[in-house]
Automatic annotation (TrEMBL):
The chain crosses the membrane at residues 60-83. PROSITE patterns: C_TYPE_LECTIN_2 (PS50041). Gene3D superfamilies: Mannose-Binding Protein A, subunit A. The lineage of its organism: Eukaryota, Metazoa, Chordata, Craniata, Vertebrata. This is C-type lectin domain family 12 member B. The gene is LOC109902033. SUPFAM superfamilies: C-type lectin-like. Residues 84-160 form a coiled coil.
Length: 324
């Protein structure tokens, strides 16, 4: 027996449309439906259950968001705790470093104060040393000057002694005055009748003296422990000119210790030195011995004459410088 298949068409009704139709019928037959509570609530329950199905995905999202918030808050709290701990440790380290720097600063200030005091003490000591050095330098200069003065006095006294030793009997009366009331003598640098100029004594023979040749004049000077005049400067030349007098004629004058007897035209003084700066006349006599002629110009009055010519002469000796 063959079975016969029957097909039927199943039409699914849209629940929303059904809901609207039911609501429309509810309004039409409101009075009839009001009495039956079971018939009225059955469609409403079906309608409320369907929206609940749509709210389930939002609950999952909310749960995820809640979990994320919890995790975020936990992470924030963890980071806060971590950074708070790190910041606290860093602050503690900074406080220790600040305390160390404060101690070092106090130490440096104390050291600087000590160095300042030391520098002040050294400056004071240096000033005292400078003052002492200045005093010592002044004293040293004074002592050096005194030493030099004593050396000069020693040399003068030694020269005086050597000069005195030339005499068999030193002519004390020619240098020194008679004893005074207390028995002391005052001695002069030059003998009586001699003139003092700078460190030399001069004997210029005037009217009462005889005339002599150059050689005789020098011998006469040597007898008096002196020698013919040696002129060493312009001031000495002017001094001699001012203290010599004209006599007899324009050719006569006073022999001085200059000659070229040993070598012609090589003028030598009696002390062995060469004549450099001379005070010659424009025209000389052509002799070998020199005399100074008073009536000529002060700086041009030397004349060379024959050594055998007789003239006056000028003797020179070193002055005796007595200690006080």
């Amino acid at each position: 027996m063959s079975e016969e298949l029957h097909y039927s068409t199943v039409v699914f009704k849209n629940p929303i449309i059904s809901l609207l139709e039911e609501k429309k019928e509810e309004e039409t037959v409101y009075a009839e439906v009001k009495g039956s509570a079971v018939t009225q609530r059955t469609p409403a329950t079906a309608v409320d259950e369907r929206p609940a199905l749509h709210s389930q995905p939002f609950r999952g999202v909310a749960v995820c968001l809640g979990v994320l918030c919890v995790l975020l808050v936990s992470a924030i709290i963890g980071l806060y705790v971590y950074f708070s701990t790190a910041l606290s440790e860093h602050n503690t380290k900074l406080v220790r470093e600040l305390e160390q720097l404060t101690d070092e600063r106090a130490f440096l200030l104390a050291t600087n104060q000590d160095l300042t005091n030391l520098n002040s003490n050294l400056s004071t000591a240096n000033h005292i040393l400078r003052c002492d050095y200045s005093k010592v330098s002044t004293a040293n200069q004074r002592l050096a000057a005194e030493k030099e003065a004593l050396s000069r006095e020693r040399d003068r006294l030694n020269w005086n002694l050597r000069y005195i030793y030339q005499f068999e009997n030193f002519p004390v009366n020619q240098y020194c005055s008679p004893k005074d009331d207390v028995g002391e003598r005052k001695c002069n640098p030059c003998r009586s009748g001699w003139m003092l100029f700078q460190s030399s004594c001069y004997q210029i023979l005037y009217h009462s003296s005889p005339w002599n040749t150059w050689e005789q004049s020098r011998e006469n000077c040597k007898k008096n422990h002196s020698d013919l005049l040696v002129i060493g400067s312009q001031t000495e030349q002017e001094f001699i000119h001012n203290h010599t007098q004209y006599y007899f004629d324009i050719h006569h004058g006073y022999w001085i210790g200059l000659t070229d007897i040993a070598n012609v035209n090589q003028w030598l003084w009696v002390n062995g030195s060469h004549q450099t700066d001379g005070f010659w006349k424009r025209q000389t006599g052509g002799g070998n011995c020199v005399l100074t002629v008073p009536n000529n110009a002060p700086l041009a009055n030397w004349n060379a004459e024959s050594c055998s010519m007789q003239n006056r002469w000028i003797c020179e000796s070193r002055a005796l410088l007595w200690s006080d």
